[in-house]
Amino acid sequence: xxxSRLKQSWSLVAAHGDQVxxxxxxxxxxxxxxxxxxFPTNMAGQRDRLVTALGHIVSQxxxxxxxxGYLQNLGADHRKFAVRAEHYPAVGEALLATxxxxxxxxxxxxxxxxxxxxxxxxxKVMTExxxxxxxxxxxxxxAEITSHERRAFDVAVLTLRPQYLLxxxxxxxxxxxHPAVRSWRYYSPANAPRPDGTLELHxxxxxxxxxxxxxxxxxxxxxxxxxxxxxxDGLTLRPAGSADLLLLAGGTxxxxxxxxxxxxxxxxxxxxxxxxxxxxxxxxxxxxDAIDKLAASYPWFRVTQVVGLDMNRPGxxxxxxxxxxxxxxxxxxxxxLCGSDEMVSQTVAALTRSGYHAGQLHHEGLGQHWYGPAxxxxxxxxxxxxx
Length: 387
Prior knowledge:
11 helices, 19% strand, alpha/beta, six-stranded antiparallel β-sheet, disordered C terminus
């Protein structure tokens, strides 16, 4: 297998942009129509993910240690799409046909052998990982909605009870899908693990978002959802050790930080925690009662609410980090932040300028979402970084 030849050929194919996944999926669905049901109705985001995943695999094809771990996680995760071993040959056929189409005269027998060998490795690692995962976790958990509260026009707080215990760590993200919607969206539970196994989700409906809109506007108590295995450690407390914490939240980005507060409370009051939570207006503080209750219960937990819009200063917007930096020096603490892409990027920039180092700043990926084991470029509904 000629690695340089693989990379060069992929760069030529990828230059055709959106036409590549369009041709691939058209070829796959025409030759194997049974595979169509595994994909969402709106394929826009899926097309982006295919090109991104292939690019990642090709870029690491000469770094097998890293690539194998990535593929193992991807294979285990794909079980939630009902992907089985017999589907991989169909995908391989469509992939080779797509490469041949876009490479034209540059498609040779040697290149075809290289790509067939590479895909053979990919499918082998992914199918073996999926088989191994069957002994550990189900493809998904079925959960019942036991509470559904509309806190704002576009925000709902849901309580879910999985039929079987779903282990996770505070700060991780869990895949959520409605049986009627063939899409997954990852949310960070707003609670630390509970004895009864229930999960609290804070959901804001994204414009055009199939999953988020369904969860906010189209669900009720008694409905069932599907949940996928937890992923990610960017917002977990492990890298912070026993340090004091500064939490910066915007909108429903408060959810995973709420889980961290609960975890600190469960572990014991051995650290101080300061929260700065922001919203555009006071009416948008959708979880104020819970925040006030936590602050009243724990003397080590202090809260500052930051209203972003000031009617006396039109055109200006105050982020939680602005207020926090004005209030004091937090450089001895680990900082956890979650909110919109704009909020996170501006917060990281402001803290970096103020002397905070990257190792003490903890957040999710920007402009991306969980798709399998890594962050991927996504359609609006799947924007895990946009809270």
